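pasting Dolichyl-diphosphooligosaccharide--protein glycosyltransferase 48 kDa subunit for the record, 444 residues
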Amino acid sequence: MAKQRPSFLLLFSLINLIISPLPAFSFSGENPTARRLLVLLDDLALRSSHSIFFNSLISRGYQLEFKLADDSSLSLQRYGQSLYDGLILFAPSVSRFGGSLDQNKVLEFVDAGHDLILAVDSSASDLIRGIATDCGADFDEDSEAVVIDHLSYAVSDTEGDHTLIASDNFIKSNVIFGDKAIEAPILFRGIGHSVNPANTLVLKALTASPSAYSANPRAKLSSPPPLTGSAISLVSLMQARNHARVLISGSLEMFSNRCVMMFYFLMAKYNRYEKSGNEQLVTEVAKWVFHERGHLKAINVKHNKVGETTEPGMYRVNDDLEYSVEIYEWSGKSWEPYVADDVQLQFFMMSPYVLKTMSTNKKGLYSTSFKVPDVYGVFQFKVEYERLGYTSVSLAKQIPVRPFKHNEYERFIPAAFPYYTASFSTNFSVTKPNISIFDHVVLV
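structre below
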């Protein structure tokens, strides 16, 4: 008997499984590290010129897929599912992406909770500048402008235009740069950008020195530069409200092997360093962007009356209650207890009636207890925890608070005993005894 041929649908499914990129680790709420990365390049030669950075990602378990930015097969989704967890854009000069990819698709990718590293140089196209602007970074409007520093520049640039600069103006954050401080300065050649100070989602991770400015090195200055000093952001970070993270660098060369291995600096204060801090910077910041650090989750939220274990449907005024929550931080491989002394709970109705700092057992559990205010209405348990470099923890749950029932009030209030005594004393003092009429008869 002849073997039955597999149906077309089954055959198509098998082919799709074979050609689809299957991750070793799936990206999810329980595993927030982005493992599947699409790397878009202007030139495939960047794979070798920036190999130290790429190899650091591969050594930590990331799956990198390299493609030219104008590849006709580019796509970030298939059948409504994301093919990648993160995107690295090292294609500053591309004016139009290939395939179905465009500026809106990149932004939708970030809006879906995925991460992005974008590095540019002086050849940055309007397409790339537009993506950066939508992520909160505004590059210098002059397309020929680069960051210049006549004081803090690399020794190899002594006879040039001082566009290969050195900076050590880092934001102070161990969660972003790691526990080991970056002591050596960063080599940077590229364009500067500004960040709107009112935008709380974007921060300047590395800024230029006070002597730097943004201008065209081949043109004579006819007016003050629009960007000067520490207002120039060299590397900026953005963390969206959906916890997607974006790195924007005005220098593609900063990630290159040349800047990573560069020796010696002109400034006396830099002479003691034999190697730049570029490798440490790009490695540590990439860990943050791809959620190897600073990703928090809250589980097991509980509240109940003191002495009970079940969660009630409502509380009564003046009840004693307990609240607890467990908070963990993703280490890149597993969830570890998050330890802090500034996690606060609000018992909220229009404004906080109770604000308590929760204590921790240093194993992830945070708890506190308090008395329900003598105000009835609909309250909320709220935990709003936002710290630099960490994903936010936002918890809220409504609970009604009722007054005493008529039969729950105390019959005799101890504080009112003086009034009780005064009342009874008054009654006894004005009450006359019942005397018979015959007691008043006078015998004649």
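The domain at 29-289 is CATH 3.40.50.880 (Rossmann fold).
The CA atoms of residues 8 and 132 lie 44 Å apart.
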